[in-house]
Amino acid sequence: xxxxxxxxxxxxxxxxxxxxxxxxxxxxxxxxxxxxxxxxxxxxxxxxxxxxxxxxxxxxxxxxxxxxxxxxxxxxxxxxxxxxxxxxxxxxxxxxxxxxxxxxxxxxxxxxxxxxxxxxxxxxxxxxxxxxxxxxxxxxxxxxxxxxxxxxxxxxxxxxxxxxxxxxxxxxxxxxxxxxxxxxxxxxxxxxxxxxxxxxxxxxxxxxxxxxxxxxx
Length: 217
Known about the structure:
By secondary structure, the chain is of the alpha/beta class.
């Protein structure tokens, strides 16, 4: 794949968190959703991803996200199979317990995916980006100008009828618009999505290349 794998807890997280960025990189992007409860949200997820241009989102059958050996293994298998250069997931300090658990699962799965003793063709993820959904990042490091794809993000948000119905005053629509506008003002563009980048430890025995002789290369 050599692209972007976005691992989220629930249908709608991918759109609310990084829908504009996914639309910008649609051909190189895949989505893995760890839960789908109730099941009809799967249709909303597929509809939203289709609007963003991301094909065939993969959905696990978990009702909630718990950090477990079994779930870590399932996510690791997807990482090794898809071979993404970048993974996007939740913040470790997000207000939602499923989101925080997803971060823990993904972080451990990234390490296991590189184990040469576990996989005949292990995979090293280069970058881990953490997105903001309802919990904002205090000091984001990565800015993505999504001015050209904001309308597609709005249309994908509109695909989540079951979630939008929870707040008939338009909370999700208004919050995502204001968030993108705020980040756009910070990034000198019309609309933006911000991410925090987390360094990945590469000092374990399963990483062949661990040291450098030149920081400028």
